[in-house]
């Protein structure tokens, strides 16, 4: 990147993250040149190019201003990192775009033949025979009652008390989060994420033009001291985290940390989204923030993409009662009613006597995959940060501080998709980490490609 | 509404529509009191209540300011009209929430037994036997290729030239529009809508916190003179309209109007969303803006909810090539990959030899329903604004300037859901209009209830 490009990228990033608001004056050429240690002519050239692109405009004698009419939102341009290799969307795009025969230890889901296809096929056949209303009509705004009732019974098993009238069906876990973001956040708000956290939280938060602060994640949950300082200094509006099995680390929230986090959140009036899409992978349930809080400041969300099928889109939100009506208005405005069909198939598959047996087999299969993968990685000097109790992820340190972004690009050219650490890290402090999916690691070629790429 | 409530509602509406930006100073108590012709103490009381709710804050000696931290987005509070009877979401909520046995001449879709349930059942059975990847995996980011190819062939029949790589599958027509709004719009931008237009455009635009300007709709399309003036005065970013059969009027865009609108839009750099969800109801195709424009500034969207099934969620966007990659990033960030299953069922049903025959039968059935409904309405003094060539809607004037909002509330208490005119009208100039769905008007009780309510 040239000096001019550096200035351009920095200004674009500050506009994208609303550090520079539309209509505000940019720092003077002189001040900017001094800050970078570049010559003023470099800064002038950068500002002129930004002006040509319509991103900033000049007012004679009064300096440069951020244009009011911005270019269409481009997530790739947003945020500080313009290198696609460590862009939060890189892993998603590579995982989704490469053929399903490619090797994808970087992806975030199980191989298709690990999912509950038999239950899905039975569900589809059963729905094909259902009443014409199920086949053809919009659902009620909350979504299929029988599925919402089932979900409250499942939540109750985790200590979360919710009425079916507090449960809103959505198209996916991601859409659940997006809907709550839209509801609670205004551009410029601050949101706390775990560092590291699921990379798509970063991508989605960028789309909402909010400020993001990362709290370091420990094997017991977020670092509570750092969390308290962040609430104090940044007055965030929202904290988003995983329940149960943390993505990408595989760590589990301890009861003491859960209690302390909730206490701090309640004192600060902070809302929390607890994303529990990996719930069914747990053998021993960890504490849920939503259970302690009684769905007062915590929004609890989930989906069926990781256990039942990613091809059928269905997720849910369990929300504080007083927000349900407004969330429904927003759901209708942004996606209209939603259907009954996906919910009916999910209901059929979840209540199928085979589902529990299927998940029990998956637990065993994942435990075996972890046991096989850890020594294979160890031979390459790749070590897990912790040994997870459940789930598909290992959060691993590369040997010799290797760059995971470089490694990921090398492996991609050999047909292996990795998940480089900095896509998960707000502080960009996970450059030599990768997230490794043990369910996608059965092929010996993965380890050959890794060995060559590390050499 | 008391005087105090009037001031509160007005301030809230101005904040919601970003007329008052966060952080800006409100007009003084004295000026506001003068403007309304109320006493200053009324305004003080209103401001104090707004302060208690955290919506505004006072700075000693410096007046009242719009709070930076706003309450969670509530669409019901947004915009000028706080009366739920003429809220843009009122018709959606009533139509979706009342039981499917209620009488709903106000709703925007066909009765379930008019849709293509047989094709759907066949599609579901066929997908139940499909490869495990179709059943279980995420789709590629653009969505199922075979369906995108089919869609480009269908578009080609309307003169719209698009490559399959320009077609993005989504969860619904509404989600298609929302995705483009998110991509193109920034809070405070101006958007042009038809007056009247589909009420959910209003709801969705409120959620995006943009300014909305209505262009009067004529039987040939938008009033071109007014359109030119709006582009000149308001510099809007986007115009959203229906292709083919206009909702709610049933009017059809004339070639001359289409040409002129596009010429003005191109000169002004205005983007257009052309919503063509009623395409398959047309007998003789009207001109498409997307065809004239060659998908350069026009985004063309559609779905299958109105002809195939509302229960299966699947829509699409045909976009200018240069925006496809960024739209995909946004689609993944906000909803992740999307599935293959809904697309596979749609593909099966659309390529089923029975679909064309089914739609041809629907055309005849709708023509008969129009012919039967018009005289039944005429007996009550309710007259259509024009006689549509196709589709399910009649845009009707009530006798004696009756208020449609009042009528709708009266009819709702008798189990009949109407669509009052002002939910469609940005200028609120359709107080004595209703949109009437002839496919939902078979029951004589509807006309009895209407007669009583008008009396």
Automatic annotation (TrEMBL), chains A, B:
The keyword Membrane does not apply. The keyword Transcription regulation applies. One of its GO terms (molecular function) is DNA binding. It is an enzyme of class 2 (transferase). Residues 1-69 form the HTH gntR-type domain. Transmembrane segments: none annotated. PROSITE patterns: HTH_GNTR. This is Transcriptional regulator, GntR family domain. It comes from Psychrobacter aquaticus CMS 56.
